[in-house]
Amino acid sequence: MQIAPSPSRSPSPSPMTFAAPVAPVHQPSIPQGVVFQDKREYQYFCHFRDDTAIRFSGGFEPTLWNVLVLQACDNASIRQLTTATAALSLAMEAPQAAVMRDFEKESHHQYALQQYGEALKGIREMVASGQDSMRIALISALLIFCFESLHGDLGRGIFHIQSAIELIVKRISEAPRSFYFPR
Predict the structure, then answer these.
(1) pLDDT in tens, 14-53
(2) Taking CA 29 as the corner, what is the angle to CA 24 and CA 32, rounded to the nearest 5 degrees?
(3) What is the pLDDT of residues 100-152, one digit of tens each?
(4) Burial of residue 129, with CB atoms counted within 10 A of its CB: 0-12 exposed, 13-18 middle, 19 or more buried
(5) DSSP letters along 67-105, please?
(6) Burial of 98 (0-12, 13-18, 19+ CB in 10 A)
(7) For residue 7, what are the CA distances in angstroms to 28, 90, 91, 182?
């Protein structure tokens, strides 16, 4: 089942939002070509766009997160990593949210792990078949690092970043002319 995206801000998958009304903020629309498998995936994507991307930006302009990463979500593995990261961020917020019950936290956590596993499987298949691109490799490594950091395994996150760097170095050494840019 595929859900047609709506460019408007949608509610987070968590029913805990009781914020006071604020002035409308322009949210990036959903990039063309991004298709969701179900409503839940769409809701986590919107949570990533509306909340997680802002948090990851740390006060800076969130262009990396809400433009480059969201545009790359036309790739199923990137979309799965994005929704997994959003679900995990919701699960990690749970201790501060008295409204969220343990089963809601666990639901976010299980969805995050399931999506993360599917994304890693897809990335491995892309790399094995030679379909990978530098852009997908870098964005995947960045999202994997964020996911693993949120999950509390910084070492594993750093390992994935190192693997992405090795892949890039290998690719550049195989075809150095295609990456040459005159000054």
Answers:
(1) 443 334 344 444 456 787 878 888 999 999 999 999 999 8
(2) 170
(3) 577 788 899 999 999 999 999 998 888 778 776 778 888 888 899 999 988 88
(4) exposed
(5) IIIHHGGGSHHHHHHHHHHHHHHHHHHGGG-TTS-HHHH
(6) exposed
(7) 8, 22, 25, 39
